Amino acid sequence: MIALAVVVVVCPLAGPVAIAMRARARAAGLASVAGAVVALAAAAALLVTLLHHPPLNAWAGFLYADSLSGFFLLTVAGVTVLAAIGSVAYLSAEEDAGTLGTVQIRLYFVFFGLFASLMLASLETGNLGLLFVLIEASTLASAALVGLEGKARSLEAAWKYVIISSLGVTIALAGTLFLFYAGSALHLTSDQRLTWPYLFAHAAALAPQPLRLAFLLAVVGYGTKVGLAPMHTWLPDAHAEAPSPASAMLSAALLNTGMYAIIRFLSITQARLGSTFPHLVLLTFGFASVLVGVLFMVRRGNFKRLFAYSSVEHMGIIAIALGFGGVLGLYGALLHTLNHAIAKAVLFLGSGDPAQRLRTREATGVRGLLTAVPVAGGALLLGSLAVLGSPPFGLFLSELTIVRAGFARASPALPLILLGLLAVAFIAFARTTMGMVTGPAAQDLPPDPYRGRAAHWARVVPLVVGLVALLALGLWIPAGLNSAIMHSLAAIS
Amino acid sequence: MIEKLAATSPAGVLLDLAGVMILLLAFACLGSKLFNRYVAYYGAQSVVLAFAAGVAAWTFHSAQLWVLAGFTLAVKGIGIPLATRRLLLRRLALGRDAAISTGLSTSLIAGGGLTAFAYLVTKPQLLPHGVVAAAVVPLSTAVILLGALAMVVRRHTVAQLIGWLIVENGVFLGAITLVATFPFIVEAGIFLDIAAGVLIMLVFVSGLTRELAEASATELRGLRG
Q1: Mean predicted confidence (pLDDT) in B165-182
Q2: For A369, which of A219, A341, A352, B188 is 20 to 30 Å away at the CA?
Q3: Looking at the partner chain, which of B157, B171, B223 has a beta carbon nearest the beta carbon of A157?
Q4: Confidence band, pLDDT 50/70/90 cuts, at residue B217
Q5: How many CB pairs under 8 A join A and B?
Q6: SS3 call for B50
Q7: CB nearest to A127's CB, from B121, B126, B186
Q8: What residues have CB less than 8 Å from A331, skipping those under 6 apart?
Q9: Cα→Cα distances A43→A16, A445, A461, Å
Q10: Nearest-CA residue of chain A relative to B3?
């Protein structure tokens, strides 16, 4: 199992290694894809192994993986595969168009690999201090991707991202310190006192006041990475200015990593303080996020910002699901995490085409995509429907589960408010994207930026794979996935 | 182990003093009008922090803590202030005004309020009596809040960067004294992160300077809504 866990983390580094060996950018791109595919296979194998064995706990808890880790590893590794394939297409088009130089493209693959590897590593550690270190390091690697274009706008976005996220994660570190302090009465070594399985097992003996503070600081801190309002301000800028495959990574992988950290803190806090206080905190931040996301989606403008605000909204939904709690709530939260990750990866990757072809990210500048560029238009249409939670896609099922959890566990007003906000989101989001895909195509459409068969397939494959997966998840939940989620729930409650 | 840091022991007294000095220097940063003083106060704060780490290392006979103290002195106390001065302040001619978006006195009063707030939320009864940590927890919380305040009220990107480093110093103060037994790998990792973070932020700041002529956050308003 240790070997599998190491393979998951090391394989995404194939891209950076290829660059270090002076491979050409395209070769590095292919190496990234190959590495990501191997990592995904290893993550799947690890998850299957974890379903039948006790959690992996090695190297004094610095390496720790249970079913929850396995579930998130599978999600992040899957998104990495989609984004790596999308990167090959996107960057070869950027290179042909001359917007990015050779050095920038090489840097892209270096930081892309580092980013993926660090995120996967952060899901595999039981040491909450190391978790902070890895999440902060992945912030830095992804900030380099955001600022890659080197223009004033992208540098501004990268600056906002790195300074706000660093501050946020530092606050989470303060929370980790308080958690460490809460355990000072326990008879554990100092390594163990920072290690999740020991803390969880001894949760009943933790000091309640420092723990309460620790949870609050962790939610605010890691919530900054998740994009929970009001700490979300970096998110639309970074998502809009990063290259499209990097935006997909940010929205579909990085945000989930932050949520994973919050879930770890949540389970310890719940075990000691009961569920009232942590649920109240999560519901507050969750509803604030959904509200902010929906309100900003009403404005018509940059379509990548629209997708970013939709991420804020969906992270809010996941926080609400965690706040509703119970088996149904947690089940919905995890299922929604997976569904949202795939849907958002499809949307951001699909948005790369119009962004490159028309050199605009404004929704009003895009018309008739369905007739002009059927692949991108179709992906945008189906991806929007999926992300808005319309059947038969997976998000319908997970949102339904979450709303049901709300009716079962909280006062009926809360799920009703959530449904109302979701309806507004549907109208606001669809109004913009439907305008982009329908209507007559522009007469003077620029030529296809994707030259060559390889680039063409690299553009189509992740979109089709993602949409098929979303459709499949909406129609039926595979037994393996179901037991993975149930095992994850058992691991944290 | 933590008993060695009773508030009455010499090491405990030194650590308490260092904590108070660090808080005062955070106030000095917040209240300084000139850019190079702002950076100098940050450097001084880091030197005191390195001293505190040294005291903890001496108390616990911990080689690892000595290494951390040395790194703190070299990187935060000397390296970062020097690099900021050489690379940024001179090149950008920032000598004079570290622009602030509220009045100086307003931000100082807000800082005082935050310090009081830090004492309120980390009520001493939350901690065992007589241990030095009882004094250090509210101090380090206050330093974290003051650093965050500096990030909010200072307009220039370089000043915001230093604000983040003040926050880090606050966390570090808590880490070395409150929990002198914090695992070394984690502390070393935190250190690496900070170094890498400062590096990448310096790249962004110089890129912004190239693009915007002056990397003041007041000019960072291309992205809205």
Answers
A1: 80
A2: A341
A3: B223
A4: low
A5: 129
A6: helix
A7: B186
A8: A401, A405, A485, A486, A489
A9: 20, 42, 21
A10: A184
- Report the alpha-carbon distance of residue A442 to residue A358 in Å, rounded: 10
* Residue of chain A whose Cα is closest to the Cα of B118: A213
Is the pLDDT assigned to residue B1 strictly greater than 70? no
pLDDT band at B194 (very low <50, low <70, confident <90, very high): confident
Contact A148, A100 (CB under 8 A): yes
Per-residue pLDDT at A112 exceeds 90: yes
Which residue of A133, A139, A194, A198 to mutate against B (max B Cβ within 10 Å)?
A: A133
Cβ separation A163–B2 shorter than 8 A:
no
Structure tokens at A419: 């449904």
Of A108-122, A467-481, B78-92, the range with the highest mean pLDDT is A108-122
**Cβ density class A214-239: b for 16+ within 10 Å, e for less:** bbbbbbbbbbbbbbbbebbbbbbbbb
pLDDT in tens, A157-171: 999 899 999 999 999
Average pLDDT over every residue of B161-170: 91
Mutate to test the interface with A, among B179, B203, B212 (most CBs of A within 10 A): B179
Structural domains of chain A, count: 1
Rounded CA-CA distance A279/A284 in Å is 8
Q: From the CA of A383, how many Å to the nearest CA of chain B?
A: 23
Which residue range is the domain that position A361 belongs to? 2-492
Enter the pTM of the model: 0.92
| Whole-number pLDDT of residue A320 | 95
Query: In angstroms, what CA-CA distances link B80 with B47, B77, B91, B162, B165?
Result: 12, 7, 16, 9, 10
Per-residue pLDDT tens over the stretch A377-392: 888 899 999 999 888 8
**Whose structure tokens read 């038969």?**
A392
**For position A440, what pLDDT does the model report?**
80
Token output for B140: 């380090």
User: Could you give the 3-state DSSP secondary structure of residue B108?
Assistant: helix
Chain B CB contacts of A137 under 8 Å are: 192-193, 196
Q: Which of A68-82, A116-130, B121-135, B200-214 has the lowest mean pLDDT?
A: B121-135
Query: Do the Cβ atoms of A127 and B212 come within 8 Å?
Result: no
Report domain extents, chain B: 10-213
Reported as a single tens digit per residue, the pLDDT across A213-261 is 899 999 999 999 999 988 888 999 999 889 999 999 999 999 999 999 9
Closest residue in B to A132 (Cα–Cα): B190
**DSSP state at residue B125:** G
State the residue for tokens 């007294």: B13
Residues 6+ apart with CB under 8 A from B184: B64, B68
- ipTM confidence score: 0.86
